[in-house]
Design goal:
Elements lengths: L1 E8 L3 H12 L6 E4 L10 E6 L11 E3 L1 E6 L2 E6 L4 E6 H13 L4 E4 L3 E7 L2 E6 L3 E9 L16 E11 L8 E6 L8 E10 L2 E10 L5 H16 L4 E12 L8 E2 L3 E3 L15 H18 L10 H16 L4 H8 L4 H8 L5 H8 L4 H13 L32
Parallel strand pairs: 1-2, 1-11, 2-8, 5-13, 11-18
Antiparallel strand pairs: 3-7, 4-7, 5-6, 9-10, 10-11, 12-15, 12-16, 13-14, 14-15, 17-18
Helix pairs in contact: 1-2, 1-4, 5-9
């Protein structure tokens, strides 16, 4: 039996960031990070809005302030100052984090597969394929071990495929991003293209869909090919890398601590914002809060996300995405016609009620009143959460964890 102060299960973004925050803090203790294999490749791209870099260890690879929104009924181009849209590529982030953790004597990294975990009074126990470990607290970021509620299965999802495109000739404007281009096929759910140029010849292009059913990869690739042909007259280009994801869009509040000493972090802890899918910035804030609470109170006190009025806003928008998808492009166009600072504070859930009222006065009211009626005043259960009989395809599922004692499996 090997004993540690903190055990972190999973070496993705949430596990690495929490481990990094622990060794940066005044806390002293032994840390165990369990990951089946160290990640060192680009398996995803993280983006977020911020007025400045998030810290020495989370610097972005690229950032932009010139933003474009396009719909069939109009477009909007604006400067997001003082906010920037920032991009971090996962491969470089993984390498930097693991190199740093390997150099710290307090951190032990094992390449093993977690089989089960449980809370046993004053400590928690984790059994892997090779060993048994005991810790004062266990932090779980493994989605396979985060119970997914039946209400989320088969519900609305954000799913996408992104291609890193390289061209022979100058093609893209590296100073401007297309945050949402709705001038694509809209049958079968809300669809848009997300274009982040990192040079005049290289860009990340993601084809994103909000719907119940997840596409097969050839369908995304065909849609990307059509987009590049129509918008840039591109027929000759290289796809250097691909990344994909499936994110359930569920506005419920997820309890963070289960089974006594098991704390769920990252997407497994419900940190993905329901209406947008953004997670990275929220993981950093949550990790700092967890470490701070352990330093002050001797125990982790996680913040619950998707609470209060922001959960209310997310629920209304998601109802419209599912039931009135034709209204969604116009809603985003109206939203981004407001003052950029107010919009980005709102998306980051940092705005106050007065600022939010100012935004809502610029939006079309009838769709939201319809959503309000059906989501909150109809006597039948909301249909937006899906059916338990449908299978899920999540590679980024969110866990809605039951309150009280429950098994970690």
């Amino acid at each position: 039996m090997r004993n540690y102060d903190w055990i972190i299960m999973g070496g993705g973004a949430s596990g690495l960031i929490l481990c990094n925050e622990l060794i940066n803090s005044s806390l002293r203790g032994k840390i165990l990070l369990i990951e089946s294999s160290e990640k060192k490749w680009n398996d995803r791209t993280w983006c977020f809005w911020s007025e400045k870099e998030l810290g020495e260890f989370y610097n972005s690879n690229f950032f932009w302030k010139k933003i474009e929104i396009k719909t069939s009924s109009g477009s909007r181009e604006f400067n997001s100052q003082p906010f920037s849209y920032r991009l971090i590529r996962s491969g470089e982030f993984y390498r930097k984090m693991y190199d740093r953790l390997h150099q710290n004597a307090r951190v032990t990294i094992v390449k093993e597969k977690v089989e089960r975990y449980e809370s046993l009074g004053p400590y928690a126990e984790v059994k892997t394929s090779e060993n048994v470990y005991r810790g004062s607290w266990v932090f779980n970021s493994l989605l396979s071990l985060a119970p997914i509620p039946d209400s989320v299965r088969g519900g609305l999802k954000q799913h996408f495929l992104g291609s890193w495109i390289r061209t022979k000739e100058d093609c893209f404007d590296p100073g401007k991003i297309r945050l949402m281009d709705f001038e694509v096929e809209q049958e079968g759910g809300v669809q848009f293209v997300y274009l982040l140029p990192v040079s005049s010849r290289e860009a990340l292009l993601e084809y994103t869909v909000f719907s119940r059913e997840v596409w097969e990869k050839p369908r995304y690739r065909a849609a990307i090919q059509i987009y590049l042909s129509q918008k840039f007259e591109l027929a000759d280009y290289w796809i250097e890398e691909e990344e994909s994801g499936v994110i359930p869009m569920c506005p419920d509040t997820f309890p963070r601590i289960t089974d006594g000493r098991i704390v769920h972090i990252g997407s497994a802890g419900g940190l993905t914002k329901a209406s947008t899918g953004y997670t990275f910035h929220r993981i950093i804030e949550d990790s700092k809060a967890l470490v701070k609470s352990m330093a002050y109170y001797g125990r982790p006190i996680p913040e619950l996300k998707a609470t209060g009025r922001f959960a209310f806003y997310d629920r209304l928008l998601l109802w419209l995405v599912k039931n009135k998808p034709e209204k969604v492009p116009g809603i985003f166009l109206h939203l981004f016609s407001c003052k950029p600072k107010s919009v980005f504070k709102f998306l980051a859930e940092k705005s106050n009620l007065f600022e939010e009222i100012g935004l809502f006065l610029r939006l079309p009211w009838p769709p939201f009143l319809t959503a309000l009626w059906y989501e909150y005043f109809q006597t039948s259960p909301p249909k937006s959460l899906g059916s338990a009989t449908q299978s899920d395809h999540f590679d980024l599922p969110i866990a809605k964890l039951a309150k009280g004692n429950q098994s970690g499996i």
